[in-house]
């Protein structure tokens, strides 16, 4: 698969994104229970389409398939925090993994945040999610804090790792 086309999400993506969330749910990254059928709406007042970018395969005839998404949102409504955006979701379909989709979404998300005037982009990742942490580190994100045992998942306590990157001085990539 060649690099995907990244575009803003639209209301018409609602069902496909709900299905993507269901298909990609994993205890490796999720702190909430597995989604159950029937799936509710993906978009709502707290999760509008404007916060999402979606990746489509760059294959003729597959434009109606969504390979993945990233959510870039303000972490708080405070004016003093308006220069920060946070990755509040990143998912890639199994069939699209290991093809650069997550990396393309991260880079598009950083550009999207920078275009909104953000100077920093942050995220939270579970301590045991080594593949995601390696990806973020390879894109320049650094660990900025760890909340030890922040989540209890099954019988284990899992760290919440806070990571971030400065956007103001970064040249657009990819």
Question: What does the model show?
Answer:
The protein is an alpha+beta fold and 174 residues long. The chain has three helices and seven strands. Strands 1-2-3-4-5-7-6 form a seven-stranded mixed β-sheet. Helix 2 (101-115) links the parallel strand 4 and strand 5 (120-126). It is globular and about 40 Å long. The mean pLDDT is 91.
Quaternary structure classification: single chain
Total strands: 7
- The DSSP helix count reads 3
- Give a quick account of the main beta sheet: strands, pairing sense, barrel closure: 7 strands, mixed
Strand content: 25-35%
Average pLDDT metric: 91
What class would the helix/strand composition place it in?
alpha+beta
Order of helices and strands: EHEEEHEHEE
Rg calculated over all Cα atoms: 16 Å
Please write out the topology.
Elements: E1 5-8, H1 14-24, E2 52-56, E3 68-73, E4 84-92, H2 101-115, E5 120-126, H3 130-138, E6 142-153, E7 156-166
Parallel strand pairs: 4-5
Antiparallel strand pairs: 1-2, 2-3, 3-4, 5-7, 6-7
